[in-house]
Design brief:
The protein is mainly alpha-helical and 187 residues long. It has one domain (2-90, 99-173). The chain is built from 10 helices and no strands. The longest helix is centred in the C-terminal third of the chain and has 33 residues, at 144-176.
């Protein structure tokens, strides 16, 4: 029962934490609106898979990183620079995409894996949230089984939210098809 409880907490807070627009879920939304459902699904799967080790790292280093505020500040700055660069790169039109760029763009899984790895903001999120839940007495992760149940819940929660994004974008896609704004301005 305790395993289900920590899984459920990981699932719920991952689902809720994935709602705010970010580079990854907006990319999935954009692909789904363009009708690239299979690519968006593979992208979402890669995001959920990368979320597992990032949540694990966040939980493992919760105390160490939170005890050194300078480390946390620099970590966030590095992540902000990477994400800003990726955002600018996505906005720049490409006149003649290379074969590698075409493969990368058409492969939802590789693209999702790469962008997820370059988006380490899940680590401080899970550090902070796990520390908060421990301080409130909601969660205790003394065994490896409980830890992995919790972290697995975070991955499943992210996949559930991203699947909903794909589903609703697919339903909205007929109204957005052919719009140049879908490619230029993420919805």
């Amino acid at each position: 029962m305790e395993y289900f409880y920590v899984f459920f907490l990981g699932f719920i807070f991952s689902f809720i934490g994935s709602i705010p627009p970010g580079t990854l879920n907006v990319s999935i939304l954009q692909m789904a609106l363009e009708g690239k459902i299979k690519i968006a699904t593979r992208f979402a799967l890669a995001v959920a898979i990368v979320g597992y080790p990032y949540a694990w790292i966040g939980v493992q280093f919760e105390y160490w990183l939170s005890s050194a505020p300078m480390m946390v500040e620099n970590f966030q700055l590095i992540a902000a620079v990477v994400m800003t660069g990726l955002g600018v790169f996505n906005l720049l039109p490409s006149k003649q995409p290379t074969d590698l760029a075409k493969k990368f763009s058409e492969s939802g899984f590789r693209r999702g894996l790469t962008l997820s790895i370059l988006n380490p903001m899940a680590i401080p999120y899970w550090m902070g949230f796990t520390a908060y839940m421990k301080a409130q007495g909601w969660i205790s992760l003394p065994t490896a089984g409980l830890l992995h149940s919790y972290v697995f819940g975070t991955s499943v929660g992210a996949m559930a939210l991203l699947s909903l994004v794909i589903y609703f974008a697919q339903r909205l896609a007929p109204y957005a098809q052919g719009s140049k704004w879908i490619k230029i301005i993420p919805v």
